[in-house]
Amino acid sequence: MRASEIFLAHPAPPAQGLPHPQTTIRAGISGFPSPAEDYVGRTLDLNQRLVKRPAATFFMTVTGDSMEGFGIQDGDTLVVDRSVDAKPGHILVALVDGEVIVKRYEILGKRPYLCSSNDRYAPIPVSDLDCQVWGVVRSVIHEYPV
Amino acid sequence: MIGLVDCNNFYVSCERVFQPRLAGVPVGVMSNNDGCVIARSNELKALGVEMGTPAFELQQWVRQGRIRLLSSNYELYGDMSARVREVLEEYSAGVEPYSIDEMFVRFDGFDDATTLALARTLYRNVRRFTGIPVCVGVAPTRTLAKLANRAAKKRPEYGGVCVLAGDDDETRHLLEQTTLGDVWGVGRRLVERLAIQGIETAWELRCADPKAIRRRFSVTLERTARELQGTPCIEMNDSDEPRQRIMTSRSFGRLTGEPSELQEAIRQHAQRGAEKLRAQQSHARAVLVFLKTNRHRKDLAQYSPSIVTELPEPTDDSRSILAAAQQALDAIYRPGYRFMKAGVMLLDLVDANREQLSLLDTPDHAADRERSERLMSTLDELNQKMGRGTVRLGVPRQNAAWQLRCAHRTPRWTTQWGELPSAKA
Question: What is the ipTM, given to two decimal places?
Fold first, then answer.
């Protein structure tokens, strides 16, 4: 097996930090105060910022344009946390009729719907369908070509 | 009390997390190299498909769309297993992986109600956080925890969680209904010998005199009998069952982050594991390597990674196993952490004699295998005669290119940026 065929197991705590003068860092997944806190030359770790619970966090790629109004564009990367309770207003990854979709969870006239930001897509009434919450989207990563 | 958390149909469940369409469908996971079934969904079991069924025998059902067969995706399973372990570690400092899909969890110092509530929390949260359904069995000993887990899985009235006090009517009832073949560590031959003595259920073994059991059978079986009585006496690595997985691990004398010490530990564990494998005449399909920092040292950075690498073919050759283990270690090792424990687990064992030859088998290949067998048996013989560790392997070649066949492998959803699942907007 070549080295390139072996991949990182989850969790991957090595911090990809950026040098930054004044902040508090915490070590790895556990959130324990790091002994490195006392050191000069502190860093910011995007994992720590975006991934609150590594065991329950998954990344997904967006396909489609129905969520552009919420800042979610085709090709973006979603940070999805399965440990969060879904509440109205959350952006969800849901399973609807065997398909994995990303929508905004809303209550319209006391009934739950999965809504797009784009008028061309009608709100999907949750109760009529075989629908399950897969996880709650905590953030979206949009990379620009540079 | 000790809990056993066992993932239901683990490999298939991992696939289903990312492919909702597989829900309810009979799904099998194949070994990549010899094309037989190594994991089955309940629906596939219900169709009568046995473990080890050659994939070609199922091709007609595949073509008719009645069943789905997938290549194994060890990278995914390894990652999901680490996630399950991590969720458990949120609730207990004592989590010991027993195999890729089974973990012992310490439940010390709780009253009955708290124990049950905690067991239910594990049951609920592992599934919710990771998508993997599990069953939880809790009891005073590992052997009883295994039985509790089995009850949790097989009896719907438990709802996936069974806590056995070990000395009440419920325990008695369960043990009376459990045949010895289903007791941890009691092999088929023992079952027959015990039957001659009139001992056929777990309850009867529990009631037998442990000293007589030791005299007539073995210390190991005496331990099992005592464990059934509720006295813990089996530690992680000393059960003598013909194993479906082999685990070798040890704590370091002191915390270490020294790469050479970690490498040496992994090398020893891999070699010891391979010896055990040969002793029970099995071949392994994959190798899991894990490291653990000390969770009680809250002043130190924590990192407890694990990773699974697949072997190019089922093997008992120390060299292949060692190479895989070392490369796995390289992939997870990070400087700056002080580790308490390292271990190697050999997974998905197959009977060496029953193993099917790979389609890629050539005369060269067969000759290689024969040479390997001779070398390994010489190695074992020398170590037996002259003391363990007399002959050891050095550092293996790093770039032995292994080609894996994985035509039906699902994407590595959680470990490769290029293979993330997609969500439709």
Answer: 0.76
Q: Position B71: which residue type?
A: S
CB-based contact, B334 to chain A, within 8 Å: yes
Q: Cβ of B402 and A2 within 8 Å?
A: yes
Cβ neighbours of residue A128 under 8 Å, at least 6 residues apart?
A: none
The DSSP secondary structure of B118-135, one letter per residue, reads: HHHHHHHHHHHHHS--EE
Q: What is the C-alpha to C-alpha distance for residues A29 and B332, in angstroms, rounded to an integer? A: 15
* Phi, psi (degrees; rounded to nearest 5) at B393: -90, 145
A62 token code pair: 């967006």
Q: Residue A106 pairs with which residues in a beta bridge?
A: A113
| Distance (Å, whole) CA A16 – CA A58 | 18
Under 8 Å CB pairs connecting chains A and B tally to 156
> Given A4, A30, A34, A66, which residue is catalytic?
A66
Which residue in chain B is spatially nearest to A1 when comparing CA positions? B402
- Cα separation, B117 vs B123, in Å, equals 10
Cα B288 to Cα B274: distance, rounded to the nearest angstrom: 13
- Give the range among A61-65, B108-112, B262-266, B350-354 with minimum mean pLDDT: B350-354
| pLDDT tens figures, A3-40 | 444 444 444 455 555 544 333 334 444 444 455 545 54
- Check if A52 is active-site: no
Is this structure's pTM higher than 0.90? no
